[in-house]
Amino acid sequence: QVQLVESGGGLVQAGDSLRLSCAASGRSLNDYCMGWFRQAPGKEREFVALIRRSGSTAYADSVKGRFTIARDNAKNTGYLQMNILKPEDTAVYYCAASGMISSPYANDYDYWGQGTQVTVSS
Q1: Which DSSP state fits 43?
Q2: Residue 20 and residue 91: Cα distance in Å, rounded?
């Protein structure tokens, strides 16, 4: 079992950048596919990005070209670099881990962090 803790959220203006962190403990994050999801008030939790154990990545169309997912094995930490932020990026962002499958669906993930708030003003 792996435990995940997100950090790095905050209030920024449109066009700014943020880097979210996902600190893992209990197991190596590299043993999992890691995903980022987000949930805005009144909205369904939606897929943002994932990185497979191989290092390959996938992104939602809404963030492709602006966001980059990565992991640092030495620090056992995952990251989501968010550039050119837009007001529609405002949400609580969650990191998640899947032991065996890479997927854009939240129900396929086994472990979740507590979330970190990202607010982008216009």
Answers
A1: S
A2: 13
Quote the CA–CA distance of 55 and 66 in Å, as a whole number: 18
Query: pLDDT per residue over 33-74, tens digit each?
Result: 999 999 999 999 999 999 998 999 999 999 999 999 999 999
Structural contact between residues 110 and 97, judged by C-beta atoms closer than 8 angstroms: yes
| Amino acid symbol at 75 | K
Q: Is 69 exposed, middle or buried (0-12, 13-18, 19+ CB in 10 A)?
A: buried
Max intra-chain CA distance, the chain: 40
